[in-house]
Design a protein that fits this description.
Blueprint: H1 2-11, H2 20-39, H3 42-47, H4 50-60, H5 68-87, H6 91-103, H7 105-112, H8 115-130, H9 134-144, H10 150-166, H11 170-179
């Protein structure tokens, strides 16, 4: 099943997906983009997701810029499929998960269009599954924020959750939520 879907992903042309041209551009010119951003100051470089540019630069040593978005898609699907088969009780659940994966608009969009967020989310799933230390998870969010900035928002939510669970008494939260 995995190989069939992977072959399907490989044969889909980049031009049918919105923003793929941008990802090809990132792959082809990541080094130049990092230089341009850093000339305007380190803060400009940091807000333009430099880790994503470094990943693109690294991949450009091995594959063509046109293949980089396909690689990102296959990587994200591989992580998804790994966790799907790991958590499914039988083959029917795997097929059901794949049907949902390709028919729910959000997951399809995440897989094939918004590749930066898809890559960061894939790494985050790995961290969440294998790491139980909240400090390492928070560090992962900081690092992943340099692939896609939405992880800085997730970092804030995790910090709020951490402090609410560890330093604020449950009665305070109970009263607060009942008052809403």
């Amino acid at each position: 099943v995995y190989m069939i879907v992977t072959c399907f992903i490989i044969v889909l042309p980049n031009y049918i997906f919105r923003d793929r041209d941008s990802y090809i551009y990132y792959a082809a010119f990541s080094d130049e983009l990092m230089k341009d951003y850093s000339r305007n100051g380190i803060e400009i470089l940091l807000v333009n997701e430099p880790l994503f540019l470094l990943i693109n630069k690294f991949l450009s040593f091995f594959i063509s810029p046109y293949s980089v978005p396909v690689f990102f898609t296959i990587f994200s699907f591989t992580i998804f499929f790994y966790f799907l088969q790991k958590s499914s009780r039988n083959i029917l659940m795997i097929f059901f998960g794949l049907i949902l994966y390709f028919t729910i608009t959000y997951t399809f969009h995440l897989q094939f269009v918004i590749l930066r967020q898809s890559i960061a989310t894939s790494f985050f799933l790995i961290v969440l599954y294998y790491v139980k230390d909240i400090k390492i998870i928070l560090l992962a969010c900081i690092i992943l924020g340099f692939i896609h900035s939405s992880f800085f928002f997730i970092l804030i939510l995790l910090i709020i959750n951490y402090f609410s669970n560890n330093f604020i008494k449950q009665e305070v939260w109970s009263i607060l939520f009942q008052s809403l």
